[in-house]
Amino acid sequence: MLELADISVSLGGRTILDGVSLAVTPGECVAVIGANGAGKSTLLKVLSGQMRPDRGAARLDGCAMGDIGAAALSRRRAVVAQSVALAFPFTAAEIVGFGAEAGGALGRRREAIAAAALAQVDMAGHAARLVPSLSGGEAQRVHLARAIAQLEAAMETLAGGSADGHYLLLDEPTASLDLRHQVETLSLARRLAGRGIGVVVVLHDLNLAALASDRIVALKDGRVLTNGPVGTVVDDALVSAVYGIALPVGRTPPDLPFVLPQTAPVGAA
Taking the mean position of all CA atoms in its chain, how far away is CA 94? Predict the structure, then answer.
């Protein structure tokens, strides 16, 4: 289990997260939503072990994140950040290969895992392209492939192919993507969860969050406002409380919630 226990984080004198607790189990897909500045990206950084909380604890299977070495941690969880700055102009294949290597794959196996991961994100034909020459959406898919390769290699190396105990953390993975690749990216996340990988995805789009997740965690002002199944927690009151706008929540079979911006009252912010 990947968990946060009553964590708080302050930056520059401002409280970003305040008393947040969250547990993610293998095979579960959890979407984190909230308005700008709610603390979503910071939560993901603490959950990944990239940032230590000022108070509380982040744990992986009961072990404090700070006590897990970087190499060991890279074989248990993979992260796709909102944006990644490259110091050198690596090719797509090289970037994804780095992920496979971090997961423990070397030589021909490293290359094979990287190639398969690029194919999963519809980037097989761009393997030799320099990542800085790609569009923002294409580069985002390369980094998603890198994370997939990292987990595939780790599962093969450490668990004999089992996904249990591995986690994928995604921060706005659809932000630069066209409609097709938004849907395909979240479908891929769902398939990985179906294999037993725990997935946490930060999303601004409530419709995509409802489509992709088993459970939604809504943050407001650094606190958890609600945490529960999609069909239960997404309603008019949640939209108003989280985003400060009155939008009616509709339902599509079999009880999947959605919102339409076109239904906002005239003059709404």
Answer: 22
